[in-house]
Each structure stands twice: as C-alpha cells, then as structure tokens.
Design a protein that fits this description.
The complex is a heterodimer of chains A (459) and B (603). Chain A is an alpha/beta fold and 459 residues long. Chain A has 13 helices and 19 strands. The chains are: A alpha/beta (459), B alpha+beta (603).
Chain lengths: 459, 603
Amino acid sequence: MIEYLGLKSINGPLVILEGIKDAVFDEMVEFDTDAGRRLGKIIELNKDKAVIQVFEGTDNMTLDGTHTRLSGRPMEVGVSEEMLGRSFNGIGVPIDGLGDIVPEKKLDINGKPLNPVSREYPRNYIRTGISVIDGLMTLIRGQKLPIFSGNGLPHDQLAAQIVTQSSLGDNAGDDKFAIVFAAMGVTHDVAQYFKRTFAESGAAEHVAMFVNLADDPVVERLITPKVALTLAEYLAFEKNMHILVVLTDMTSYCEAMREVSSSKGEIPSRKGYPGYMYSDLASIYERAGIVKGVNGSVTQIPILSMPNDDITHPIPDLTGYITEGQIVLDRTLNGKSIYPPVSVLPSLSRLMKDGIGEGFTREDHQDVANQLFSSYAHSEDARNLAAVIGEEELSDTDKAYLKFGDEFESRFIGQDPSDNRTIEKTLDLGWELLGLLPRAELDRIDTKLLDKYYKPYEE
Amino acid sequence: MNINALDLILKSDKNKVPEGEIYGINGPVVTILGNPGFKMNEMVYVGDLRLVGEVIGLNSEKTTIEVYEETSGMKPGEKVVGSGSPVSCVLAPGIISNIFDGIERPLNLIREKEGAYISKGVSVDSLPQDKLWETHITVKPGDRVSGGSIIAEVKETRAIVHKVMLPPGTEGTVKEICPDGSYTINDKLITVELSTGEIKDMTMCQRWPIRIPRPVSRRYSPTMPLITGQRIIDSLFPIAKGGTAAIPGGFGTGKTMTQHQIAKWSDADIIIYIGCGERGNEMTQVLEEFTELVDPKTGNPLMDRTVLIANTSNMPVAAREASLYSGLTLAEYYRDMGYHVAIMADSTSRWAEALRELSGRLEEMPAEEGYPAYLASRLAMFYERAGFVKNLNGTEGSVSIIGAVSPQGGDFSEPVTQNTKRFVRCFWALDKSLAYARHYPAIQWLTSYSEYTKDLSAWYSENVDKRFMDYRNQIYYILTQESKLMDIVKLIGSDVLPDDQKLTLLIAKVIRIGFLQQNAFHKEDTCVPMEKQFKMMELILYLNKKCKALIALGMPVSVLERYDIFDRIINIKYDMPNDKLEMFEEYTAAVDRFYDDVLEKNG
C-alpha cells in the first residue's frame, strides 16, 4: 500500500493532499501523525489533489510529519449483535473498557437509499408508557418522530424515560426489541446522566450507546448518527429485531455540518447552513422504515433543541418536512411544572391513524384522541375568553371546558417520570377526563363507543 | 424549439461519440478538463459503472457534468462517454400504473435486480421490452401521416387506451401495415415513406428529451374546470383543466393529503404523481392505497390511471431535479393522445433546493437565500408546460399542474413561494392555525385565490346551475365579513354586536364547519359531486335568508341559536349520501318549519 508523506495544507477539520494516485471519491483514509492515528474521508477530488475531512480533528497535525494511507473503501463499521449493552465513541470504537467487538459483518456507514417499492407501510405501534405520546401522537414502528425541544426543557429526561420504558406493547409475541442511542455533542454531565439512568433501570442490556461529547471533534459528530443507524439497520433487517433509534441532539449535528461546510468554503444558504442540509438530514431520517418481507423495523426519535425556541429555524423546519410528525415541548407547560411538557396542539403523528385501533391498541383509540384534541383546543378558547371577560361570566359548558383543560394538563399530559402506563390505562384516563364534559359536547366519538365507555364525572 | 432542429438533435450522428476523462469530483458534480466535444444537456455515461449524467456546463477549459447517482467510489481518470442525445424519456405502452425513479427507471425492476436497496449503476430498461401488447392498427396503406398522427391503439390498462403516434417531426405516406395482433414495443407496426423519400419502420416506441416541451398545434384558454370533489376547491377556488395551482404550506398543514385527495378523486383521465424529494413511506402509501381504491368513474383501481415518479429525499439529488421534467414529458405524451392529464408535484420546493444544491456545487453566484438567480425562469418553464391544447393530430387534451410548495417556517415571503405565485393562477394557501385546529383541508379562504373563476363561470352556469357563481360569491362574501367582524370581537367580545352581525358570525360558522371542512376519511365526504356542493350552498344561503327575515322581525340571535337546525345543516355532509340528493327537500322544509316555529313561539 502506498503511503504519502506530508500534506499540502490544513484548514480547520480539512486537509489537502497533493500528488496522490488512484484515490477514490468518498473513500476512507488513515493518517499516522505525531499525535497518533486518525481517520478521514475524501470529500473532493481533483485529478491528484484531494480534500480530506479528518474525523478526529486536525489538532497537533503537522504538514510534514503526517503519513497518509488510502483504504480504497468508503467508511465502514463492524457490526454485531454483541454491540447491544455496550458503549462506543462517535465512530464506533468501544469506550467501556470491555474489549473490542468481533464484527459479524462490516458495513458501509452511508447505507443505501431504500427502494420505495421495497418499503412496507408502517402499521403497528411502540408503547412508550407516556400517556400524551401513546394516546395522542402514537409512535408507529418504522416511523421517524422527532421531539422539538428548547434549551432548559427536560428533553433529556424524556429521552431517558422513552428509552427505559419503551416496549412493543402487548400484541408483540416473541418479537425482539432493542434500542440504539446516539448522542451528538452532549455535555459530559448529560452523557453521565444517560448512562446512569440506563444502568439503574436495567435497560442498559438492550441499549447500544454511541456518544460524541460536546468537546469531541466536530467531524466525528457527522459520523455518529450514520454509525448508529448502520447498526440499527443490521439488527432490524438482518436479525429481525425492532429497533428504536434515539438521536440527540440533532442541533449539534447541524451546527457541525455548518462548521465543516464553512471551512470548505461552500456557499451558504439559510443562516449559514449549507444548501444540502435538507438532503443530508433526509439521508439520516429516511433510514427509518420497514423492509418488505422482514420482521424488523427501524424507528427513529431524533431530538433537537430549537435555537431560541424558534420552530421556523432551519433545523426544526427542515426536520419537520422530512419526519412523519413532531412532538413539541412547551416552555409554558414546563413553567407550570407539568412533565413531560408536551404542547399538544402543534404535535402530530402522521402515521398514527394506521397503527392504532382494533387489533393494535383498542377500538376507541382514534376517536378518543380526536375528541381530546378537539376538546383541549376548545378549552384553550374558553381560557382566552375567561381572560377577557372573567371566569364568572362564562357559560356552564365553558366552565366545564376550563376544568377539563386543567385536569387534562395535570393528569393526562402530566405524568411521573417513573410512571409506565399501559395503553388501556391511558385510554381509560382519557374517558375519565372526557366525563367532565357533557355528553352532547363529544361530537368526534361514535355513538356506540360513547354508549360503551362514556361515564359522566361524579363528585 | 423548431421541430426540424429538434429532429436533427435526436438523429444526430451516433458514430462520433465524444469521450473524456474525469478530472474532478465534488458530490454529484464531475468535471472534465478541456472540451472533448460534448453537447450541452447531452446524456453521458460517467465512470466505469456507467452512471447516468447530464452535461450542464461547457467552456473551453472544462466540461461540467451532473451525475444522477451517487459518485462515491469514482476515480479521476475514469472515462466519460457521450450518448449523442439529450436526457430523454422512452414513450410507449407500459408507462401507466408503473412506478419510476427520477430518470424513468422502473423501481420494481430495480428491486428484482438489486434487492431492497437502490444501488448505483443499475441498468434497467424503462419499459418492458418483451411484453406483448394487443394492437389494433388504425391506418391503411396510402394514408398521409404526420407527427402526432395516431397509427395504432393498444389497451394499456383497463382504463386507458394507449394511442400510438408518429413522433413529432416526421411526415409521409403509409406504405405497408402489419396485421392487428400482439406486438412488443420494438416490433415494426407500419412502414412509412417519409417526405424525404426515406423508408422508415415505425414501432410503438419513441424518445423525447425531457427538458423540451412536446409541440402542439395551438393553445386554448381554459374553459373547463378540473373537478376534484373537494368543496373549497371546486366551489370557491376552482382550477381549470390545463391550469396551474400551487399549494403552499408549512409542515403538518396537509399539502400531501390535499394532493392525494386530488389525485384520487379529480376527473382527470390520467394522474402523474411526482414524489420529488419527499418521504419514502408516503410513496408506499400512495402505491398501496391507489391499488386498493376504486375510481368512481370507471370502477377500476386508481392505479390503472396513475403513474408514480418517486425520487424520495434520500435518493440522489440530481435525479430529483430531473424528476419534474420526466413527469412533464410523460404527461405531455398522454395529452397528445387526447387525454386530460393532471400532474401532482410534491414538492416543488425540494426541486428548487436541488437546483440550489447543484448551483452551490458549481460555485455560481447566489441570489436570494442561496437560490440561483435563474430560479424564477426555471419555475416559469415548468408551469408554462401546463395548458389546454389542440394537439398536432387534432385531438384536444390538457396538462394541469398542481405543485406543492414547502416554504421554510411556513413563511410565504420566501423566494420559491413568491416566484411560484408569479406563474400559477390558483393559490391554495394552507394555514398552520387551521391545521392546529384540525380544520382540514386547511386552505385559508382569505389568502387563497383562483384567477380561473371568471374563465369558468360560463361552464358552471351551463353545467351546474345558472346561480352557481352568484351563490359562490355570496358565500365568499359572508366569510370575508366574518373575518372583519372577528377583529372587533377579539377586542370587545361578541355580545355587543348587533343581531344582524351576530347572524353573520353564526352563518359563517355553518359555512366553515359544514361546507369548507371536509373529512377525507369519511366515505361520503371524501369526494362530493358538484350538484351536492351547489345544493349545500343553496341551503345555507336559504337558511341565511330566513334567519335574516326573522331578525328583521326583531327576533334575537340567541333565540335562533337554540334550534338544532344549524347543527343539522352542518352535518349534511355526513348524513346525506351523495346519491340521495332529494333529501335536500326535507332540509328546506325543516328550515321553513324552524322559521314558522320561531315566529309562533316568540312572535
């Protein structure tokens, strides 16, 4: 193998190498530097000149003392079922001191686009044990459902709760369920918190963790979700498991993309983010799904913190256009000490309607969800009205709505972080709350279901 | 473009195939040093894997090529070979009910060949080569034929008769014909002696460059609506056959759902659904649903009149840019046979972003928000390919384009929405707050418009009712009145309004919930015939008239509100089956009873 000595230039995470032969676009390269071994990827090629992105960063690299070797292959990661229960850094190297992984297979981390005709339409759910999610924006196997959060909101706690509580629900049979957790640019404290919570709850055994810390090199951050998803796809489509992938925090990922793009000298589009951010995010999110004929699935919950709580910022905006719905966290609810502070009205699960109801959850699920949405929206109107004309002036119906709204927030949205509710319990709670309203107000529910489940509230 | 010039391009000299060597690779953009003699927009095969690409820049120093597939694994020094012709679509039977990628490669075949994932460099035929089609020849020896002339008919699906046409630019006399029978798309059907004296065998198959509009005889102005079965569209903001419409809206406002509804229920003969940079699961859903759902007109599965073009967001970006043009070319081909074709493009913003991405890689000077300065002209070229036309063969057909726009943050002031607005005549603005309130379709009636209302009013008075446009304007007027009144209500509450204004609010509510809201999942409500739409408007306006009369007699709105007539009229959309329109008489009688009852008890 040819080794090249020296570099032409170093600029941020990028190095330029000249005089190379037979380099291949997008291939992995290895550097031997004074500061140790590093990995990189060719991102632009002009005849014998290559622009290489260094994953571990270019700190301490020198122009003269760097030896470069071409691998001839795109970046690959070794995958194995043994990886569940282990922790890795952002490029898939074990960091838990339990030794190396013996890979069953080496796979290209970029994956390949799934042919739309090979996809199976998602039609079954994952139970998170959290009422507001299970009841109103049910997570469907093969779906990508992001959580839009903000700094200071408890998305880490919510992510940890989802990881420790999630299961396939009661109709799963022998299907296996596991979690791949990828953290990008999280602080040491947060990483510690996740590790501790997983270990304490006993969930750690079926979790593979990939951690890229906030002070780890930015380019590594661009690799982390791809490595995690490669493992997830392997487990789902070759080992027939249902895999839930939690990616946090996508905002750090996008910031890293912007940083690298600007050091490449690319023309920026919105707010300095590169023009290909949509395609790049899609290449991550679209890896969720189900392949026809395989009893496995990849479901994604990407978590992102909206800069300045702005849902129109390019990161949540582009994410929302790719993902199948969104769960939005809300600062006002958080201020009322309601956990999880899920803002119900802008939240949505697009695939929910096909994966719930009879045979999956319960016959009344869709109707109850519709009614809760609509009644809660009405209670917000009543609240606004009360703010103008005072609560006393409200009609009896509107007063009932006010009470419903408060109870709904504190009992249905609000839930103890260790409370793992079944679907039955969630739906029954929904009916209990709907009981606060007169039956005539429940216009979204089928009469037969009302006869069966509706009980007016008695003091 | 001049037809003869085009003919020259298509038949250009295949012997001198230019060849070049890759110099630089940057994502989907590949450069060659010097000028090996490629033509602008020529289709080329790039590298050892022969990936499909297109020449997008030529100067004496370098040739720039965009590659429609992933370029990873490619090396400088690999060969680039020209094809002699521009990027084209193959046009012949076998297109309908198929699903293609952005450059007309059938995804089913790719799956058979490559498994669940799409690999690069896969070479498959666009259309089945050995399938035998039952063919009926419609010309006889001695007939004069020219470009567009129909020479044979093939039953392509249960719903569509495929008319085999002479490619534009040819002219001559039929010399021989083959007997009716089963032929593949490459078998000879007839022999034509061209006006140049050349004798040529004609097959079912022709090729057409995707970026060039197919020629027509003349364009008509739009006179017929594209009926969609969606009340707010058909009654308030109609689109014409051959018209253009944009559906802008932030995520979660129901762009895709609206497109699906139109694709399912509109009265077009053929639907071309282009999933451009959107979700993979959505394409799967369309495939599944359209195979199961039945077209109410013909009783055949919807797939029998649908072509899907799927270039999902994780598929290569250059092919995404091409996918709209491929769709247009297929649409124009069927229009030439005399069909009404509707294109759903979901979403044109992703297409614009693909332009931006490629433009960035070419290091062009960006205009607004990083989009290239030619964004507007490309959008114009796209939408202007719609139209209601007389074809070269004398038939009439149309291509209607309905494009979804995904503005960033739902903000309509961004470049793609603004430029689209310049070229479309129908604007169905989706609104986030309506979507949050689960008011679907979330088309905001105050910001939406249709410039076709005037052009189509003649059709409506002839085919639906003379009073249709009058009623439509009254309904629209009540809605605009409501929005003015709501500004006051927000400040001082509705109690202080005089009774006639309270009534406007009440009737507007009936219109909003009972007429504008439409439930796509309800059997009766998902698609509503024009007659029912008209009668619903008529009934609501009748109720309005009666209520007004009561108020003029001094009855307060609070008394009227106690009656359930308002709720009953709101629920007509669910309670009255679409084939039982005689039930409207009962409702009119109920309004009369309500009127009498109010007078009797309070008079």
